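Appendix B, Record 12. Input sequence as logged:
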Amino acid sequence: MTRPGPSGPKPSGRKYSGVAPEERVRQRRAAILESALEQYGTTGYAAASIKQICRGAGVTERYFYESFSNQEFCLTALYDNLAEAMRAETNTALEQADPDLDALTAAGLEAFIHYLTSDPRRARVVLIEVVGVSPNMEQRRHRVLRDFVDTVMAIWATESPRSLTRGQRLTATALVGGVNHLLVDWLMDGCHDDPADLVTVCVDLFAAARAHWNTTTSSS
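Logged structural output:
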């Protein structure tokens, strides 16, 4: 079911218990998104209903439509929030790491992997539930992956005196896709592997790519 316009009813200008109407709307929206994370991250997007999400948020269904036209709008907002938080944690780790390529690579991968593995619900939404939902969601998902490829390229550029090649861009894309699928496999296999082992594998893959370039450059 879709209602016209994601904004829904206008909040009353009257304060309730000292809380401004705009803040009440924000609080209800946050509660709905938290409940959506639980529903989509456990039973899955296809199995979830607006009624279940509202029950978990402690609101009636009319308040769902106050913020979202339908479930896809809700999933989109949740995915955007998770992707932004994932990006922020990764960037913070990079800013705090030693200015060394190995240290930057390890810090970025550890932050990225930790964000998803510390709450498997996040991993399920980001890695599985958004896949194939709609062309718009696929574009969003692709853009997030490309953003992380850009981050990898920016890190590699700190050590390279020359412009990075198209081949290195393709390698970065393959590595980011590999990290993504490794996490999908971790999730689908019941989250049994230690996330630290996942980080080690990914760091080794990035180091192997770097060693290959150094060898190629030295021989050319």
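The two ends are 61 Å apart (CA to CA).
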